[in-house]
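Duplicate of #3305? Posting structure anyway:
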């Protein structure tokens, strides 16, 4: 068998650390791997057909450009006189945008470049919390804030509640006439017989709206205007993100076998380990602050796409090296049910150098003369070795550079991998029927005045 696949040469995946040859009896035997790989072959072929017949809009999204032009124009207009851009929306209507914004340092204090400092601040409120929202809206600066409200369905209670509370606050501040300049909506186009509360509400106020792609569901929307809007706000080259994503689709079309296509290998391994080796938990652990939201985005993608009909594995987001000091004990020595994906960004020579004299004084001679990036690199290479010795399966994904193209490729990789895993498991990766019940019961409680 072959180990190591490239996604359009943007990164390198290795599943060697999941195999019996590397980690012993807890790894996958060559025959089991070959058998699962053969089962994914028809699904890879079906995916190629989905592309050719334009049946899966996600695979074509990277080729579109008109929506980027429209989003750029809307953002430029909205940003006039703005000091803060507030993004409301939840789940897939926020996590992709957060992931892309983080490439430009969002949520990593003290790292903003001069260009980023010159732009309006970017804030995301994806969780509904009364105290938080009161704090956000209780400010004399509402006129300098802009509110981008994203909901594919236009009916998500949390997002509607945020939008309505903000409209009321803006009105109360005497800014009612400014509302069409202060707000922007992203939601599905009007469809007869389908209510869209956000669209109806915003139309009433004359608020401009961008169309949410109808063929791309929330947790797959990071490459549409939903995810690209916050990226643009942080000054990220969104066309390069799409080019990176396209490289993965190109790799799919060019692949001669499932083994040649990294997302097919990733999906095969995740499913095979769960079925053959009792793996119940999938840990996504990047070693880079700028990828920590990627792990959060992946958690929704994997959980909602695969957790149905009794199938699925539990995704956990982790961050290296931080979580070596938190969750690693469990991954190394807890129940044999964890499978780790470690994402490494080449970091040797990056960052400040640790002074040898001071390191010696601190009793940490080994750190002396190394950069911070050298230390992180050593850790991120030592961990898979330690996992292998403990007989714990691990996949590594190596990035020579973290930039727009690589991140676009990673996002497309994980989305295709998840779709393929779903199809291999025999579940529909695009719905989430079980989340409805809690929504219905919430509505009932509110209607009863509970
Ligand atoms: O974009 P929206 O329609 O507001 O949906 C936002 C989120 O909420 C739903 O409950 C789903 O579980 C998620 O898959 C979705 O991303």
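Output from current build:
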């Amino acid at each position: 068998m072959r180990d190591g696949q490239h996604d359009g040469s943007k990164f390198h995946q290795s599943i060697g650390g999941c195999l019996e040859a590397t980690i012993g009896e807890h790894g996958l035997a060559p025959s089991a791997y070959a058998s699962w790989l053969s089962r994914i072959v028809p699904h890879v072929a079906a995916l190629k057909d989905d592309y050719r017949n334009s049946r899966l809009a996600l695979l074509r999204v990277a080729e579109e450009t008109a929506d980027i032009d429209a989003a750029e124009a809307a953002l430029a207009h909205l940003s006039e006189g703005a000091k803060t851009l507030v993004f409301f929306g939840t789940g897939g209507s926020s996590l992709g945008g957060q992931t892309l914004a983080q490439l430009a340092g969002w949520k990593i204090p003290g790292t903003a470049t001069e260009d980023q400092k010159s732009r309006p601040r970017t804030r995301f409120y994806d969780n509904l919390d009364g105290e938080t929202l009161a704090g956000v809206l209780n400010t004399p600066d509402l006129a300098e804030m802009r509110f981008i409200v994203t909901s594919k369905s236009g009916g998500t209670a949390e997002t509607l509640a945020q939008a309505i509370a903000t409209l009321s606050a803006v009105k109360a501040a005497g800014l009612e006439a400014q509302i069409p300049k202060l707000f922007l909506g992203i939601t599905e186009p009007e469809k007869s017989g389908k209510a869209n509360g956000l669209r109806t509400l915003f139309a009433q106020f004359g608020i401009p709206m961008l169309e949410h792609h109808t063929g791309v569901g929330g947790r797959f929307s990071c490459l549409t205007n939903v995810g690209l809007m916050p990226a643009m706000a942080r000054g990220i080259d969104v066309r390069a993100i799409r080019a990176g994503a396209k490289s993965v689709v190109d790799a799919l079309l060019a692949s001669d076998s499932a083994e040649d296509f990294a997302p097919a290998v990733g999906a095969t391994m995740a499913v095979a380990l769960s079925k053959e080796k009792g793996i119940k938990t999938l840990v996504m652990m990047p070693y880079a602050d700028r990828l920590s939201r990627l792990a959060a985005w992946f958690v929704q993608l994997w959980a909602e796409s695969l957790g149905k009909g009794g199938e699925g594995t539990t995704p956990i987001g982790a961050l290296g090296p931080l979580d070596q000091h938190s969750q690693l004990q469990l991954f190394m020595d807890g129940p044999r049910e964890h499978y780790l994906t470690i994402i490494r960004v080449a970091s040797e020579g990056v960052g400040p150098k640790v002074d040898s004299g001071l390191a010696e004084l601190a009793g940490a001679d080994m750190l002396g003369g190394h950069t911070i990036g050298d230390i992180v690199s050593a850790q991120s290479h030592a961990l898979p070795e330690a996992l292998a010795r403990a007989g714990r399966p691990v996949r590594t994904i190596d990035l020579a550079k973290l930039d727009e193209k690589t991140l676009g490729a990673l996002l497309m990789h994980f989305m295709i991998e998840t779709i393929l895993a779903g199809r291999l498991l025999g579940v529909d990766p695009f719905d989430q029927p079980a989340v409805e019940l809690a929504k219905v019961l919430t509505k009932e409680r509110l209607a009863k005045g509970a």
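Confirmed duplicate; merging threads. Residues 90-93, 151-153, 156, 159, 218-219, 304, 432, 435 surround 6-O-phosphono-alpha-D-glucopyranose (CB under 6 Å). The longest helix spans residues 30-52.
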